[in-house]
UniProtKB/TrEMBL annotation:
Keywords: DNA-binding, Membrane, Transmembrane, Transmembrane helix
Protein name, per record: DNA-binding protein
InterPro entries hit by this protein: Bact_Cytoskel_RodZ (IPR050400), Lambda_DNA-bd_dom_sf (IPR010982), RodZ-like_C (IPR025194)
Species: Nostoc minutum NIES-26
Keyword Transmembrane: yes
Domain Cytoskeleton protein RodZ-like C-terminal as annotated: residue spans: 193-260
Transmembrane portions of the chain: 119-140
Alphabetized GO MF terms: DNA binding
Coiled coil regions, renumbered to chain: none
Length: 268
């Protein structure tokens, strides 16, 4: 029985893939919040970072399966963070690319010392990784730049470069209900929720309750539905909500109950 107790007290082993998924979700939420604070749209981030929009969305939502190899992901995160005024190198370093080899337990000190690798091999290993990330990131930047130049709207690019008011948008928060009716014929609907303060929230997707409970301040969650999403909260002023990757807006006044229904297709 004592042996079983020791086993139960041991922490669960998390695979490298799970570590990457958890860290990407956390970092993506931080990048999304930083972008919302600067009132920058995804289209503007494409121009600033030269990264395709689908990759920016995958990073913010923590969709590891929609992104390339981990070494590329770290480079994309660095570019994303740099464009938002963060320290991209330091920020991206928290994303796990490879796991260092562990030293197995041995019975004697002589055997343990014999298995240790020289320090210079680790330094060389790190140097190779850094060089690979830098060169691969440059190749990815060139490909993204060519794709952006061929697909971007010239009139929109001129507006971004010449209109001085476009770089600084108003910080006044508009109610979410003012923009919900602007949705057209979409195949699905998606909402992103960021908590400015701890609030109770309930999310119903296609008639099924996806979440109900209290979320702490700073939480960022994303939900999708094929037909309709319903969001209800007891503190509308503490919840920022974005619809289909649009600009996040406050649901209502602080301390008030608010319920919003968003349909993928307008009612006939």
């Amino acid at each position: 029985m004592k042996w079983l107790k020791r086993k139960d007290n041991e922490p669960p082993v998390i695979s490298l893939e799970q570590q990457r998924a958890q860290k990407l979700t956390e970092m993506g939420a931080q990048l999304w919040a930083a972008r919302q604070e600067k009132s920058l749209s995804l289209e503007e981030m494409v121009v600033l970072t030269k990264i395709p929009r689908r990759l920016l969305v995958a990073i913010e939502e923590g969709n590891l399966n929609d992104l390339p190899e981990p070494v590329y992901i770290q480079g994309l995160i660095r570019q994303f963070a740099d464009a938002l005024g963060l320290n991209g190198v330091e920020f991206a370093s928290h994303f796990p690319v490879v796991s260092l080899p562990t030293i197995p337990k041995t019975a004697g000190k002589i055997r343990l010392m014999g298995q240790l690798r020289p320090l210079h091999l680790y330094l060389l290993y790190i140097f190779v990784i850094v060089c690979s990330v830098s060169s691969l990131s440059q190749l990815l930047n060139n490909a993204a730049l060519r794709a952006s130049n061929s697909q971007s709207n010239p009139q929109q690019e001129t507006y971004l470069k010449t209109d001085p008011t476009h770089t600084k948008s108003s910080t006044k928060v508009q109610p979410v209900s003012d923009t919900l009716n602007s949705l057209k014929d979409n195949q699905s609907v998606q909402i992103g929720v960021t908590l400015k303060s701890s609030s109770w929230i309930r999310v119903v997707a296609d008639g099924k309750t996806e979440f109900e409970g209290v979320l702490p301040e700073g939480t960022h969650r994303v939900w999708k539905a094929q037909e309709q999403l319903t969001v209800k909260t007891d503190n509308a002023g503490g919840v920022l909500m974005s619809v289909n990757q649009q600009e996040a807006k406050q649901m209502g006044e602080p301390g008030k109950v608010e319920e919003v229904k968003i349909a993928a297709r307008p009612e006939s």
